[in-house]
Every structure is written in structure tokens, then in C-alpha cells.
Amino acid sequence: MVGGTTALAALLILALFSVVPGDAIDALPNGPEVRAQLEAQWGIHGGEIGYSLTVSPGAPVGELCAAALTTSLTLLFPALFVTLAAGFAAAALLPPGAAAWRRGLHLLGNAVSSAPTVILALTTVLVINSGTWALMERGLIDRPAWFALPAEPGAIRAVVAIVVLAVGSARLSQVSARARQLLDELDRASFIEAVRSRGQGTLGTRLHHLLVPTARLASEQVPSCFAGLIVVERAFNIPGAGTLFWQACAGRDWPVAVGVALGAALLTAAARMAAETIAVVVDPRERELAA
Amino acid sequence: MTARLLLLAVVAIAAIVPYDALADVRPSLADEGPSVARWLGTDHLGRDVLRRLCAGGGAFFGPGLGAAALAAFGGTLAGAAAGWSGGAVAGVVRAAFRAIEAIPSLVLVLLCLMALGAGPVQLALAGGLAGMPALASALDARITSLKSAEFVLAARAHGIPPHRLLWWHLVWVNGRAIVAREALAVVGSVLVLEVTLSYLGHFGVAEPAASWGNMLSHAISTGCPNRWSWLAPAGAVLASVWATSPGPVRR
Predict the structure, then answer these.
(1) Strand locations in chain B, DSSP E?
(2) Crossing angle, helix A203-235 and helix A190-197, to 10 degrees?
(3) How far apart are the first and last CA of chain B?
(4) Among residues A162, A226, B19, B240, which is most buried (max CB within 10 A)?
(5) What is the ipTM of this complex?
(6) 3-state secondary structure at position A97
(7) Quick count: other Cβ atoms within 10 Å of Cβ B206?
(8) Nearest residue on chain B to A253, alpha-carbon basis
(9) What is the pTM of this model?
(10) Domains of chain A
(11) How many other CB atoms are there within 10 angstroms of residue A69's CB atom?
(12) CA–CA gap between residue A199 and residue A139 (Å, rounded)
């Protein structure tokens, strides 16, 4: 199932790749001699995937994509964790009949989360820059090393990017709503009543039954999180797969663009496969269905 | 729902008001705050923020409607075919949409725009393609769940032709709310795409034409001396995203 999805996604991307008018090598500012030289050197005919054309000319696409995806995964996984943790915390803080201030907090969180990632990222950059500039103008602080987002990577920048990625484009509100639904279903479940009637704690049983839906919920967030990476990495000047993909699109570097897109599809398929594997391992009903 | 549609109607009407982006440039009035003459002030080139805000609605509204129509047409056909026929047809359709969903929407749209070139028609095509799987899956699930309902069995027993049963009783009577809700969500996703592309540059709406995305991008790059040049498009985007977000389906 997962392999088929990835193969179909790859076919779709390659179909798009094949309908592109002209050859990606034409994007290079050169004449026919340089074109012939590059074709001979890199073996490029009809835009085959192999080496970068404009982003990092001559570099193997596989190496470029692997390095960039590794950087992006250090944002993606923490962002998924933050989304799930904050979503379940928000759902747990809002049982039916919760105090008004809690409901207000929940509504505020939903309102912030419903903002597109691009708005959230730009607002964050604007607020941080304006606030720091105001403090610098009053002589309260010296110019911080991270001000105006220099090229050097920094922990603060990564943390802010992870939070924006975790919250933006309604990810947090969707996860929170789904978590509330799951907790309600568990509260009403007969097996929880049975555990309770035996005088035992229900936490272990609840966690056990939450594992599969939580894994599926996390895997569903991967594609939108990856799309968010393109914006967040550009807004915070982080050199990951999102930045690489954008540079490839702007520079018409087809091999790199296709490589990153295939990487994204593979990541989505792997996340689904991981969620289904957890389901089969943990839930005997799923095991029966799979068999 | 009425408030949401009213808001979208306001955006649509504002977007058709004529606007000459070049004639609106008045550098002597740059970065002015709100006044009686210009309710939201001016941007870094002295252009009226309110007029650009109105004109900017058109940058996503046309492509959004086009994408919604495409997604509704293709998604309804595919979803109805998969839900009604089942078997191999359903397997092929569902596998195709799973493959599209495996590619992040922004990545898919950027690949389409690279292949087709930038422009509103291309954005509508790419947005429609990206929005089709969700609509088709929702309709597929609805028709699959209703296929063995009693009223369907009764209609079959009365000799109602299958095409009338599918397109009238299942798709129109029982599925149109789902199609409308998902199509509205496609309009919202095209808005977010337009804003994102305009911020990223290259494939978005280029200056001097107005779009909420390039208004935001330029306000950020110039440091927002007039805060309304940033707040107004951001607020418009948020309100429109709310107006187009999928609500509960009324059956």
C-alpha cells in the first residue's frame, strides 16, 4: 500500500517533470557550446535527475537532498511533537463544562492557530525585530548576534521556527479538536468503565488506546508540516529542504526540485507506514484485519 | 454560514472596483497614517492601502473560484465513481488520490507552476488539482455509506435508473453539502497559496498589481512605518480564511 502510494506519487512528479517545456539546462545563462560541454560532463539529456543545474551546479542531487532533508527533519519531528503535546494538553484542559477562562484560552489558541503559516512566521519575525530594535534604540541592550536573522544557525531561531511550524495553518487547532474527540470517546468506552469499576487507575489503559490514533494523527500532519517548512525555513533563513526546494523552483533546477518532492512523498509514505505498523503491533483488531 | 458568504461577497464586490496601480503611486504621500481621505493610510510608495486591499481580493478570488469549480467537477466525478462502483474502479481512484495527497500541497502547486508557468489560470489549475482528493474522498465515503441504505434499496426496487439514483438521490440530495463545503475550502486554500507564493516571490502576483500577499511582503520588507499597511492585509487574510474554512455539514 505504502510502496504503491510512493510509486504513484513518484510517477505523478515525473509526469509533471516530463511536460515541462524545454530543458532545465536552458535556465543556465550560456550558449550552445557550454550546453554541449555540460551535457558531456554531466551526462544530462532531457533533464534527467542526477546533478544540480543551478542551485549548486554539478553537485549530486541525492547528496544535496539528503543534507537538506536531515536539517529539515530536526525541525519537522520536534514540531510534530509540540503539536501533539500542545493539542492533547489543550484538549485535556478543556473538559466539558470548563471554566470560562479556559474556554477563552482555547478559543484564543484556535484563532492563532487558524492563521496561515506565512502570516504567523512574518508576524513573529516582525514582532521580534521591532521589539529588539526598540530596545536597542533606547540603549537597553546591545545588538544581539541573532538580530536580523544572519546566515549562521542558532538555537533560538530553530526553537521559534519549530513553534511557528507546530502552530500554523490550523495544525494545532485540528489536533486539539481530534484529541478532544478521542478523549471523549475514551471516557464513554465500556472498557474504561470496567477498569474504573475494578477500582484501578485508567491512565495506562487510556495511553494504550491512544497510541494508535495518535500515531495516525501525527502521520496525517506530515504533508502539511512539510509544506510549512518551505515558508518557515525561508522566513527564518534556515538552509533545509524547504529552502532548497524553493531555490530549485526559482532557479528552474528541475533535478533538485524533483528530488526534494520525491523525498517529501517518501517521508509522507514512511510516516503512514510507521503509523500502520504501530497499529498492527499494538492493536489485535488491526492484526486480524491485516491478516 | 450566512456571515461567511456575506464576507466573501464583500471581498468579491470590492475586487471588481477598477484600480490603476501605476496611477496610484504618489511618493510624496509615502507611509502616511490613516486619514479621512485615505482610511488606512498609504504604503511606502504612497499608494492607498484600502484601495489596494480591495483590488488585492481579486488576486485570489478568480483563481479560487476556478480551482473550486475544477475540484468540484473532478472530485465529484471521481468520488461518485469510486463510491458507487466499488471494486477495481474505486481502488484505482483511491490510489491516485492517495498519491496526490502524499505530495505536500505547496510542493505539488510549485511543481505545477514550474511546469505550466505562473499566472492566475495556472494557479487555479494547480489549486484545483491539490484540492480534488479531499473532495473526492469525502464524497466517496458518503456514497459508500449510503449505497446500502434502505431508501436506495427501495429506489432500486421501484426501478429508478441507476444514473438517476446516483446523480440525483445520492450526489445532489445527499452529497451537495459536502461538495459545497469542500469547494469553499479550496477557495480558502488558494488564498493561502496566493499569499504564500507572493511572499516567496517568483510565482506570486508581481508588483505593481495588488495582492494581499505582496502587500504583506512589501510591508514587512519596508519595516511597516504605517502599521495598517501590514495589519489590513493580514486581517483580510485571516477573515477570509475563517470565511472559507470548512464548517459542519448540514444534512
Answers:
(1) none
(2) 130
(3) 14
(4) A226
(5) 0.83
(6) coil
(7) 12
(8) B114
(9) 0.82
(10) 75-284 (1.10.3720.10)
(11) 21
(12) 62
